[in-house]
Amino acid sequence: MSNKLSSSVPEDREVVLGILNNSEKALNKLYTGYFPMILQFILNNNGDEDDAKDVYQEGIIVLYNKIKSGNFELSSKLKTYIYSVCRRIWLKKLAQQSKKSNNVSDFEDVMAVEVDVEQHEEKDQQFEKMQSALTHLGEPCKTIIQDYYINNLSMQDICEKFGYTNADNAKTQKYKCLQRLKKLFFQS
Amino acid sequence: MRNEIELEGIIEDYLNGKLSDEELKKFEQLRLNDPAVDHKVVAHKFFLESLNDYALKADLKSKMDQMHGQIDVAALSKEVGPHPSFIVNLWRKNKAAVAVAASFILLTVVTLYSIQQTTQQSGSVELVSRELARIKNSQSSLIRKINSDNVTKNLKPANFGGTGFALTANGYILTNLHVVDGADSVYVQDSKGNSFKAVVKRKDSQYDLAILKIVDESFSPLSSLPYRLKQNPIGMSESVYTLGFPKDDAVYGEGYVSSKTGYNGDTTQYQVSIPVNPGNSGGPLLDEDGNIIGVISAKQNQVDGATFAVKSKYIQEALNSIPNDSLGKKVVFSKRNSLQGLSKSKQVNKIKDYVFMIKVYK
Q1: Which of B349, B332, B322 is nearest to B169 (CA)?
Q2: What pLDDT was estimated at residue A1?
Q3: Residue in A43, A45, A124, A40 with CA at minimum distance from that of residue A82
Q4: B15 and B101, same domain (yes or no)
Q5: In Å, how far from its chain's centre is CA B9?
Q6: What is the band of B250 on the pLDDT scale with cuts at 50, 70, 90?
Q7: Domain coordinates in residue numbering, chain A
Q8: CA of A174: which chain B residue's CA is closest?
Q9: Among A49, A52, A57, beta carbon nearest to B64
Q10: Is residue B81 a part of any domain in this protein?
Q11: ipTM surpassing 0.90, yes or no?
């Protein structure tokens, strides 16, 4: 029924194990393997290439988190799961833009993934809140917070990087930044 | 301020599990006693988790963006994107429906066809009389003219031709009705090339049989007939042969009875697998012992090797309709069959004098 997609698709088991082991190679295989399928779906349902990229990445994140949380059972094909998730996400987006989404052109089997997508949306809200909070935080706070909490730099490293006279000054600065970020995050 | 910073440092260490046992106990006590501290712990925990999730997702996104860069999106879009043409799009979208519809139609056609097939043999029957070619050899006519005493004979080539065989020694000949139907005049020609004028004595349209009588003065009665009419039906797979005139000379054909019924289950006929051509109509069908078992009458157009022959039983019926006194002394089918036990070639050699080419002018 679907057009034959030429790209090679990795083994499901290989992908799941790869993601559990943080293998970037497995992620790459996964990503390049199924993108054409989603591109085809989006392009044939009122979307463009950028839509396809966004939706597909969301879909991969859903799968990634599901695998990481240990909830993923290989009861269905990975392909079906990805397709269903992306389809759901895209149809919701279309509905939000109040574009027509009846007469969906389907290319693959579809399974029920509503719960997973909703969970993902909640998480996504947190993500966007954090993103916006960080954006509003401004420099140098943003970099300090990211270096300390995300890149796991020590206070000493940050002190040197930003040219603070001593670690205590850096600590105070970090504390102030964190308070502001928390405020932004919890208020929004 | 300083305390606040230290408190947060402790909370972080607590959440990250970096406190020593003693510090842990002390802090948990503090958390129990001071709701404000407890609240801070919960809030900070949630915040750190959110920040961690954000970090992971941002990391994943940046990786995916990198991977995305490796994909030739434009080329892929061309391949999988909707075709500019509306028709092609319609086809792609409704492939499944079209496939279902097509297979349904196919199934219906096949079913109808097979139903029709079981009730009716396909292909029509082609009567095997021969329309003689205009350029019929004038040379052979000349030879006949010399051989023949009768010079007044019609030398114009015949329009149609068929085969017939002698029923009696005194000149009664059996052929197919469709060979002589609508004829202005009929001539029969024996194996030596002599032509004799004949008249149609009896027509039997039900079985497609006709009986001719040679009325020519130059005709001298034949010696007694070598073959006899077999009354009992013959079984499938029995070997049979025929002699006919698809061309100016007699042609021998050999085959077997392939079915006890003819076209569309016609019980008055056999189906015989034997090569025949236009001109074979009216020829005798004989079994291996030289008994006449039928008359070649037709063949099926679209089926290989399906020739039909009227059963001998109906020849007898046709014969019975001729008044006895006109049959003459030498009654046709004696009980004795002089051909029995002879080889095919000897049988054919004897029979050929009793098989005639029927020439019809219309």
Answers
A1: B332
A2: 42
A3: A40
A4: no
A5: 93
A6: confident
A7: 12-120, 138-187
A8: B5
A9: A57
A10: no
A11: no
B46 and B108 together in one domain: no
Same domain flag for B261 and B137: yes
Q: Which residue has the tokens 């392009």?
A: A43
Question: Choosing among B18, B41, B63, B64, which should be mutated to test the A contact, i.e. which has the most A CBs within 10 A?
Answer: B64
Residue of A nearest to B59 (CA): A150
A9 pLDDT above the threshold of 80? no
Residues B36 and B92 in one domain: no
Per-residue pLDDT of B75-107, as tens digits, reads: 877 777 766 566 666 676 677 788 888 899 999
- Domains contained in chain B, number: 3
Of B254, B216, B275, B258, the closest CA to residue B347 belongs to: B254
In words, the CATH class of domain A12-120 is mainly alpha
CB-CB contact of A155 with A170 (8 Å): yes
What share of chain B has pLDDT > 90, as a percent? 5
User: Which distant-in-sequence residues (6+ apart) come within 8 Å of B237 by Cβ?
Assistant: B256, B257, B258
Question: Residue B315 sits in which domain range?
Answer: 127-362
How close B93 gets to chain A, by Cα (Å)? 6
Both structure tokens of B282:
């009216």
**B344: in domain:** yes
